[in-house]
Write a structure and sequence with these properties.
alpha+beta, five-stranded mixed barrel, OB fold (Dihydrolipoamide Acetyltransferase, E2P), 591 residues, 17 helices, 24% strand, BirA Bifunctional Protein, domain 2, Gyrase A, domain 2, single chain
Amino acid sequence: MYRTHSCGELRIKDLNKEVILSGWVQQSRDLGGMTFIDLRDRYGITQLVFNMDVNSGLCLEARELGREYVVQIKGKVTERSNKNKNIPTGDIEIIVSDLNILNRSDLPPFTIITDTDGGDELRMKYRYLDLRREPLKRNMILRHRMAKETRKYMDSQGFIEIETPFLIKSTPEGARDFIVPSRMSPGEFYALPQSPQTFKQILMVAGYDKYYQIVRCFRDEDLRADRQPEFTQIDCEMSFVTQDEILNTFEGLIKHLFKSVKGIDIHDSFERMSYKDAMDNYGSDKPDLRFGMQIKNLTDLVKGKGFGIFDNAEYTGGICAKGCGDYSRKQLDELTGFVRRPQIGAKGLVYARVLENGTVRSSVDKFYSAQDLGTWSERFNAAKGDLMLILAGERYQTLSALNELRLELGKRLGLRDKNRFIPLWVVDFPLLEWDDETKRYYAMHHPFTSPKPEDMAMLETSPGDVRANAYDLVINGIEIGGGSIRIHNKDLQQKMFKALGFTEKEAQHQFGFLMDAFRYGAPPHGGIAFGFDRLVSLFAGLDSIRDVIAFPKNNVGKDVMIDTPSAISEEQLKELKIQINLQNQKKTRES
């Protein structure tokens, strides 16, 4: 027997028990006549005591133990004189009578403690060491609990979990597919699924009216904090349901997770906001509602006064930061620099303060009268001591910049409390979005999203005005999930493909299997998919999904622990009938 108890299990009630523990040496403290060692396993830390007066040989042996040595000890549980209230086992310690070194360890490349000295790349290279740290361990346990509670809720609602294939047909629409060559069909390829979308719709045709799956998905896209090339979804689909029924069902899932995992009761129904209102008032389709600071449109108030930037702008809007009227020139310059960053793209920032006497002073005073500035203050509902921050330019870009400015101010003012959660359904998205470069429409969600019934007549005459029967769940400015009522009629699906620029031949080639399935009695259906990694990171209070994934990729999609992607052997390439022209690859990079 390697152990009778774990390193996080023993308490004061276990006094005088003879126990066996196994684990890793966290740290050692030599105090002359006594040596103390913290022994760690997945469950916690227990302090071990070696006494020079009782057993000098054993104590000298303990002093030779290095960090991360794997050891087994036998000893007696005693009450700790200098108690540690920061750990559950802090009332006891083990007087060691026997020590067995199970395995030695090299000196780790970073310190395996909560606040480690290892950088991101180093920790990812030695991920098996990083996963020993308490924060990572907590995240993995949280992830497990959330998956368990998800399955528990879905089972209670009559859903069944069905696996779908990982080797599927490439249907590039949206992100790039990861492509897998087929040895048995030379020159032909599988793709890894970006989501199980078509399969879950086929399951609805097959009569499995409540499907779900906690599933891996794959997208070959540029990475950022909340993206990985492989990620996990809670994927769900239902038949014979309306949008309201879907929202109510999965609102229940989120409430269940908050209650069972975080102990938070959410009694009220989630707010529902149209896409248009979200964009107009927050500049984003995933607004953070933990604080106000709504965007106000000033375009009608600022034009025709001789200030060229406002006069020539398609859109002028701003936000009001309460109590920030005393911002210094340095602070205003910092905000101006922030909005001018290339990824935000604003040309500059205009400000106006409401003084203690109620008058408004602005950086563009010479173009606007006191009465003009007063109308700005009224539009913002600004009070004494408030600061109005205004941007102008092309409408969409300016709204996007105002969203970033709002979030930045929310962070600086401490308004984005990670322990406060405000869920929101965003609904009534546009069905299609126009791309000027390719001169065609693309599906805002995916090609199988149904139009609003009242907008269907416009699909052929005015496709850009058609609203989708789609919805996203947003919590604290993070898109947690999205879905839609699906098209279940073959004729309507063909109209959708036509609006997206597919020829009948192209549509049949890529999605013929789904179109054929619709010929055999497809029921009305809809569903949703939640980003499981994002949901876990939200519950963990993290900004990145990387530390809730056991083995993530870095920012260029590389696993630095196993050094992949990497080249494969010439023999494997021959088997797959694939030739790699590195010279052409080099020329492409140089051009």
